Each structure stands twice: as structure tokens, then as C-alpha cells.
Amino acid sequence: MSAQKVLVTGASGMLGRHVATTLRDRGDSVRVLQRRSAGIDGVEETLGSLTAAEDVRRAVAGMDAVVHVAAKVSISGPESEFREVNVGGTQAVLDAMRGEGVARLVNISSPSVAHLGTSIVGLDATPADPRRARGPYARTKAAAEQLAMAADAAGQLMVTSVRPHIVWGPGDTQLVGRIVDRASRGRLPLLDEGMALIDTTYITNASDAIVAALDRIEDVHGESFVVTNGEPRTVRDVLGGFCDAAGVARPHRQVPGAVGRFAGRVVERIWEHRPGHDEPPMTEFLAEQLSTAHWFDQRRTRERLGWSPRVSLDEGFARLADWFAQNPVPAR
Amino acid sequence: MSTRTAGRRRAEPAPGPGIPVLPGVDPVHSRTLEVRDHTGELRRWHLLDSAPFLAERGITPRGTLLAVHGNPTYSFLFRSLIREDIPWRVIAVDQLEMGWSERTGVTRHLQDRITDLSLLTDALSLRGPVVTVGHDWGGIVSVGWALDNRHDLAGMILTNTGIHQELGESLPRALQLATTPAVLPATTSITDAFIRTTIAISNPPLPADVARAYLAPYRGRARRRGIEAFVADIPAHADHPSRPTLERLAEGICEVEVPTLMAWGPKDVTFSDRYLRDLVARVPHADVHRFEGASHLVWEDADVAGLVARWLERTFGASSRPARAVSTFAQQAPEGHVGAPIARLAADPAHRHADAVVEMGEDGREPRRISWQLLHSRVEDIAAGMLAHGIAPGDRVCVLITPGADLTAVLYACLRIGAVAVIADAGLGVDGLTRAVVGSHPDWIIGIDKALAGARALGWPGRRISVARKPTLDRAALGIDTSVSELADAGRQMQELGAPLDAPWPDPEADAAVLFTSGSTGPAKGAVYTHRQMSAMFTAVGDTLQLDPQRGLVAGFAPFALLGPALGAPSVVPDMDVTRPGELTAQALAHAVDALGAPAVFTAPAALRNILDTSGVLDGAERAALARVPSFFSAGAPIPAPLLQELRVLMPAARALTPYGMTECLAITAIDLEGIEAAGPGAGVCVGTPVPRVEIAIAAMDALGETTGEITTEAGITGEILVRAPHVRDRYLMLWGTTDTASRFEGWHATGDVGQLDAAGRLWVEGRAAHVLATAEGLVTPVRIEEAAESVPTVRRAGAAAVGPAGTQQVVVILETEADHRPGRATRPRPADPALQEAVRRAVQQRAGVPVTAVFTTRCLPTDIRHNSKIDRARLSAWADATLRGEPGRPL
Known about the structure:
The complex is a heterodimer.
Chain A (H helix, E strand, L loop, with lengths): L4 E5 L4 H12 L3 E6 L9 E4 L5 H8 L4 E4 L10 H22 L3 E5 L11 E4 L11 H19 L4 E7 L2 E2 L4 H12 L5 E2 L5 E2 L2 E2 H13 L1 H4 L3 E4 L5 E2 H12 L7 E2 L1 H17 L10 H6 L4 E3 L2 H7 L7 H14 L6
Parallel strand pairs in A: 1-2, 1-4, 2-3, 4-5, 5-7, 6-15, 7-12, 8-11, 9-14
Antiparallel strand pairs in A: 10-13
Helix pairs in contact in A: 1-6, 2-3, 3-4, 5-8, 8-12
Chain B lengths: L1 H10 L18 E7 L5 E8 L1 H6 L7 E5 L20 E6 L15 H14 L6 E6 L1 H12 L4 E7 L13 H7 L4 H7 L2 H8 L7 H8 L5 H12 L10 H10 L7 E5 L8 H10 L4 E4 L7 H4 L2 H13 L23 H8 L7 E5 L8 E4 H18 L6 E5 L4 H13 L2 E4 L5 H11 L4 E4 L1 H10 L4 E4 L5 H7 L1 E4 H13 L14 E6 L9 E5 H15 L7 E3 L7 H5 L3 E3 L12 H11 L3 E4 L1 H9 L6 H8 L3 E4 L6 H10 L4 E8 L2 E8 H7 L5 E6 L4 E7 L5 E6 L6 E6 L6 E2 L3 H7 L6 E9 L5 E6 L4 E3 L2 E3 L1 H9 L4 E9 L6 E8 L12 E2 L2 H15 L3 E6 L15 H13 L7
Parallel strand pairs in B: 3-4, 3-5, 5-6, 6-7, 7-8, 9-19, 11-12, 11-13, 12-16, 13-14, 14-15, 18-19, 18-20, 20-21, 21-22, 34-36
Antiparallel strand pairs in B: 1-2, 2-4, 9-10, 16-17, 17-28, 22-23, 23-24, 24-30, 25-26, 25-27, 27-29, 29-30, 31-32, 33-34, 35-36
């Protein structure tokens, strides 16, 4: 495939950065857009906000394709903030693409856009549904995916949505960092013994899948794909794997799932009024994520994208351990 | 409440005036029309009509299914009949005063309802072929329509209904109360108790929206008056206006010769098995399927529509064919009446006084010895006594007797006169046994005291006969007619009076026995054998085991006690609790062997470990007895070679043979220790080559584990194992759908086991077809995963389970470890420690080629009680499914 010009939004995050470097390494010319410098060698950096139409237009201009990763991915906070970034930002990208005549978009979404709070056991991607998605993040991402897919359906753009599920890897401060931090302080409970089966995605596999979607977009536009490692494990094994890699004790405190969900609901409300510096320790959404099964049927994703994970879960844990060996968790 | 319903109606497209959108019902199929009823007035009917559904798909209907609901449901009950694989026009009516049809205020008796229905079908210009479908009291109305419209009638489908009401007492108790004038309006119309009760008894419980749909047309007392009138029309008294109609129908149905299907939910307090029994007696050619566990609303509880689709196809479709037993496709065994050797040996002066049956006494007490002559006269006496007592050829006799001389005599007496022996193992447990006994509709129960007490307490049907003579008081308490002793006495007296047993041997094609499966794969099923198949079965087992009649056998596994007399070989029952075959001790076995000299030995696979574990206490004589055993058999589950090698130390002269078979075909293949060693390791368990007259084939499977229809005998193809033999069961008892599934490859019995043939023609078994895991990496059998996991040194035994939908299933392994294994009840699994998990994952990935999603340990894996060796994988999967879904605390 000849080199193309690709804009990656949100390259300061782990996934955006990984996509940008993967594209760069194979010879594409890459431009990134985010508020603060991402400091990635060999890519063109534009600073700006997703919510500023002109910033976005400037970034999109002259590109062949866009990979839209940027989003507010917190698990709590006022819904208006999520809406502004996730829905407004996606709208800005779509408008800019239409204005600048850039036709290809890989929209990064989340399986939670179709997560109804019940267990997901081996299902393929179902349509995004903002009315039924749980929590502000999922609701706004669902609305954003609908917007993006509508642009495809209208024949204006070629859009495919990729929904990586629980992306993690070395240097990840969002998920692994927080889990390890809480575990090291003995504040990571296991809901319902942590027996629910969940899918996760090692970072390399997630960015590979996104690149594959970009390369195959002529065939797969209009479709949404859940992307995972395809190796569901119990919550306790996933959390345990992170903790083992970081050299901290595995979580052992047990909390009934219903208690966790209730506590999460209370904490969520308090946080709305008295936001702290950190994320709240538990939200109802997180409690649900950690106590009900959500793993997916990957057959269509793998077949349509011509992609399969390169890094197994256990290989991922080993790489994570290597990273922690270089960057040890401070002893408490 | 009504305002809310009205609000919803405004919001969504309504299928008709006042009719809300109902779950699972396309409003297009809902229609209303006005037709004159028996009073001559125009009445508004509501019905479901699948004509638009068929037209849309370009399907030309083969005929019409005319479905009539009972009380207090409506056409909604039959919504599942509208489906692509039923190329019949479905017309499901709401009877007048019911459902969404008109409330007219007219009291309608049974005959009026039949007339109303005929007037409706005239208005619809319904012409044959018509198959009527009825449920509850609608079943009676549907039969009335069938009898009045015979020229159009092609078939009948009856579900949880009853055509015959005995006067007074026999009315179902729940309805007796409801029909009491003081109670009737209170339960049926003033409140909605009657309808709520009806939908509440569904098993499993109805989804909330379905329950709401059943209640929807009956909101408000005025709309419920039809329910009350319907109940009041039950003709419980001789002078009831509907009584003559009911009696006409009850007699008329006996003359109907069209194909008939009866589908039943046996957990019905109203139309219990008693009504099914009555219907089967009236329509003996009917195909019957009892959905074990399903309740009165069988259409909700079980896939009745799926059964109907298959039945219509088999009965009226292009692929319709006369049902022919699998055994008729096989090479036949030598003919002979079952039990004939008993008479032969009793007549032979050389054998007459030799032992036929020996029961070892408890704790070294004197054994009970029965000679061939004694056995023969006992069988003949009991047979004559049975006939005199009114037990007729064809009657079903449930035999609940501990294996031993009494069971043998009673069984052969049944076989002699052609009474159909029903044999269910106590290993099924009380619930399982009750299901088996009740579900086999016995006319008689012959049992030990414990069984009869159970029969009394649990209300099992059938007249009761004890083994030993009972004092009058006990007789009354247990509700006993007579005893086997008295039957034998009566027979002997007749003989002495010059009237010996005068009965022809039964027709080889008549039913001989019903053998219940172990229930390790769902509710126990009754496999029905004809006399020909039964005779072939005994011959096959004898041939398989190369049994020497001179030496006899030790029946360490109860069912084999019945084998000896059929083959003319003496048999010994060791001192043991026959309901716990796994607890047979080495000492008890040695004593039993000694009683005959050098007999063949049969045990349950689970007993082998115990025999080895208890062999330490054997003295010299006991060891010598075991050393004389010429052959040793264990049936029920495959035996690992290492165990056989250990046993060889104890029985060095014995050829150790394990047959592979099942209740539906007892002997399929056999293999000895040398054969196992020659086969070496491979996929699953090598069970050897087919025994005489048995053919084996493999039904290929697709990626989801479903058989494709292709049959092969090629080596190396894994699929469902098919067998053909003269001793394959005739059918399953009152399980038409199950028989159909097991016979779906014409001329073959689909075993439900999965495996492959190798280049040497040996069969390898890899577990149950239903347990095949359809992972994203392809099909894999549990056995391969278990063997891989068991290759980890600290693992004692492994069970594989799957979670998730076919095609993307995830593998879960549950282990007993050497360190933590505790025999006994299965305990709730705990997550395995990370090191063990990793070892198991690696082993399974390497040897079976699939990833493992989770690994657990338990003190003891659940096993099937009867065999005490088959891991209950279904139970493991059910536990894993709930737990890994995030439903904690579930016991295994």
C-alpha cells in the first residue's frame, strides 16, 4: 500500500500515540492533533482543541484519512463535559472532513456504546444505542458513533467504527496505573469474587486492528467492530495479572457486586457535587464493568479486518512486567 | 391500569380495535371478523392467521392448523406456530367470550362452542386437509370439531387436555374446588386469581411481558365472565348439560384414525398424566411426547412448536416415511425367546439341580441358592399367578426389586407372558425414579417395601404388588393388592389342580421391556425393547463377553444379574448395596467368586478403585479365588489402562474386557487390556472394534458441532457415533421427538456420543456430542482437554466445560488436585492458583490446541451416581456459565 497522509486525533493518550507510531513506522505521513504536545518523533504535530472547529479544520486539511481517537474517557464527571468533547468533537471532525474533502474515517468507539448493564457473553457488536448505554461516557460515545455512521450511511464519507475493549499495555496510566496504585494501597476490592469473564485488548493488538480497519475501509465502511484479544479471563485473573506484573499483592478484599454497585452510585453523586482531584474510587458503571461478564464474538472482526492479535494476553503480561521492572511501583 | 394500557395503545400501531401489541405476535397476523354463532347472531371473533406470513415468503400451505385454546388463555398461546418451518396456515381462534373475541353474555355449552367453531370455519371457507390443535378444554372443542368435520380432518394435535372426565371424584382437585358454586365466581371472574394461577405455574416462570399478554384481554370482571362460564361448563355431574356431548366425544375419538400427536407437560395439576394415559388408550396409534419438567402451559415451557414442525414434516411432508426401527436394518441375531434356556436347563437332568442364582448372605451368612429347576418353576408359577391376577400381556409392570433371585424370577415371568417390564434404577434417586415411574404409565408396580412405601407416599400410578406376603395391616397401609409370594402360590395351586401355565410365548415384535437410561444426560429416558430386540441384546452381551455358560458370572453391577438366566449361565450377586455399585469390596467379590468356582466377573467401573483399595485385607483363600477369575468385565464408562494393569495383579488369569455401549444399545464394541495397550495414546478413549452384528458410522459435524447429514466410515473424522444392530432399542417411551432425533439418520441410532474410527477400524470415544466445544479455534471434545489437563502432574482429574455461544465458546477447566482431593459430594470450585492455571493453560494449548479461559479447583468433581465415574459435564457447564457471567455464589 502506498504511503498515505493520516491525521490521528488524541495522540497524547496511549492508544492514539500507538496508532500514530505504528502508521509512522510503516511509512505513512502522520499528523497528530491534541491539546498538549505528544512529543512523538517523526510526526507532524498540530496543537488544538477538538471543540474548536477551526483547529480541527486545519488539522484535517490535506489528509487522506483520519483516525479519530480523542475522547473524554473518564468514568465519572458531569455529562455536559463528555458531550462537548465526545459528541461535539466528533461532529467537528465530520464537518471538517466534509469541508476539506477527506473521505476516510476510522472512528474509535467503545463496546460500552451497546452495553446495557447486563452480561455480554460471546456477542458480536450490536448497534450503538445512546438511550440504553450506561453512564455519561458510554452514552456520549454511542451518540458520537451514531453520528459518524450516519455520515457513512448518507454516502458522504467512508466510516468504520472500531471498539477496542479495555485497552492496556506498558506505560498505561489510565487503567493499569490506577489498578496497580489502588492494589498497592489495599484499596482494590474484588466484586463478587471477581469471577465474571471479561475481554481486554493489549495495546499493540488494538492499534494493529485500527490500522487494518483503515487499510480495508473500502470493504468494511459502514460496519462497527468490537476488537479484543479474544482471550476472556476472569476479572480476578486480569487484575491479578496486572498486579503480578507490577510486583504488588493481588487484590483479596471481597465485596458483593450489589454493594459495589450501590456504593458506586452514592460515590458518583457525591463526586458530581464535590469533584476531587482523582477519579472516584468506584462508580456504578465501573462496578458493573467489574462484576458482569462482557466478552465478545471476534469471528466477524477478525475475518472482515483480516487481522488477528499478535500479542497474547500472557505475552502482554510479560511485557508489562518488563516495563514495571524499569519503572517500579514505589514501595508503601 | 386501564389508562396506562390505553396510553400505550395510542403510542403504538394497534393490531385491531382494543388489542395491544403482544410480544412475539406480528400485528399483521391478528385479525377480527364477524360470523353468526349458534344463536344466529353476528359475533366478532379474533384470531391469529398466518396466511400473510406464508404469502410473504411464497410458501403454499399444505393445509391448515386449526388451533383452539383452553381456559383461561387465548390464541396468544399458539403464536409460536407461526414459523417458516411450518408450511401450514395457522388459524388460532379466540373462543367467544375469551381473549379478544366478543363478550356476548350468552352461556355457551360445549356443543355450542363446537358449533360456533364450525360456523367460523365455514365462514373462513376452510377446506381440508386440517390438523386440529387443542390445549386444555380447547382440546375437547377441537376434537368436537374434528368429529364433526371428518371429511377435512388430516390429523390431531392434543396438548395437556382430557377427553374423559370420570364423574365426581376424578375431577382434578384444583378444579373441584373452583367449580364449587360458592367459590367459582370468586376465583374466576371477581378476581383474576384463576388466570394468575394458570400463568404462575409455568416452569420456568414466564417472562413478565408474556405474563402481561396473557392477562391483557381479561382485565375487569366483565371481560372475565367467560372464564367463569367455561369452568362452570365442566361436566362433572351426570345431569350436566354438556355431559352427553363429552361422552359422545370420548367415544368418538376412539374411532379417529388420522395421525395424532400428543405433547404433554407432566407437571400439570389439572391435566395430569392420568388424562394422557386415558387418551393414549383411546388413540393407541398416537405419537406421544412428554416434556419432562414442563407444566400445564406446555406451549410456553417447551419447544412444542418445534416438535409440531418436525412431526408435520415427518407425517405429511415430502420426506415422510413409515417409521421403521433401527434394528430392522441390521443383520439379525439367532432367534429365541428370552428366558427359554431356563426351561431347557430345568428339563435337563444334568443341570436341573445346579445353581442358577446365588445371593451371597450378608456378613458371611449362608448364601441363598436357587437351582434351575426351582427358578423355572418359580418363573412359571409367578407367570401363571400374574395372568390369574389380571396382569395381561402388554400391561406395563414397573419392577422395583433389588437385584437378586426375586427380581430375576419376576422379570422372566413378565417376559414369559408378555407383560412389559419397566426397569428403572434406584440410582436415579427419588426424584428421578418418580419421574421415570410416573412417566412410564405403569399398570402395575411390583416392588420391595421401600419402593411401595414410596409409591404410596408419592402417588405413583399402578396397582401395587409386594414381594413378600404382608399382614393385612401393612397391605392396607401400602395399598397392596397381593404379593409375588401369593402370585407364585396361586400359580402352583393351579398347576397342582392340573392347570399349568398355558400361555404362548409373546410375539417377537411386541414390547418386552422399558429400560431407563442413567439420567446422566438429562432426565432419564425409557428405552423400549421388543422381545426380538431384547433377545438380540442378551445374545450380543453374551457374545461380546464370550461368556462360558458352564462357569457362570458374578454380577457386581446389578443389571448383569439378569443376564445369566437368558444365557443359561449361573449368576452370583455379591454381598453389597446394589444401589452403590462403587462400594463393592475385594472381599465380597472374592466370596462371590468362590461360590461358583471360576466365574466371569462384572463390576461397575467405579467399583474397580474400591476393589483395589480394599484388597489389603484379603487372606490367602480369597486371593486364590480372585486369581482363578478367567475374565473380567466392566461396563458403563471407559477404564483407564493403568487401572486395568493394577487389577491384573489381583486377577492375573483374567482377560480384562471393557465393552462400550449404552442403555439404547448395550453392546457396541469391546476392547481388552492388550487392545488398549496396542492402541496406545490418542484422541479420547479407544473402545475397540464392533462386536458381532454391529455396524458403526460417523456423522460429520460442522463448525458449530451440528451434524451435517453426511455419514462416513472413513478413519480420522470426528463426529457423532452412529450404530446399527439387532439389539438397538425400538424407541423411547413417550418421547416422539427424542426418538425422531436419535433416528434422524435412517437405519442408524445416533448415540449422542462423539468420536472417530481409526485406520484399524477401532472406535475412539471422546464424550458426548452435546458437550463438544465449538470454539473460535474449531471443534474440540472435552476428553481431549481433560486428558491434556490431566497431564499436569499435580492434577488428579479434570472436567472440561464451556461458556458462551457455539462458535465462540470459551473453555473452562475444573480440577481435582492430588493434594486437595476429598471424595464425597462435589464442592464449589475455587479459582486455581496462578501457577497451576498457567501449567494447565500451557498443556491444553499444546495438546488440544485451544486456549483455556479459566481454571478452577474443587475437592471433588460431580459425577453421575449410577456409574460414579462419568464426570457430570453438564453440571460443570451450568455452574461455569452462571459464575463466569457474574452470578456469584452458585453451588455446583
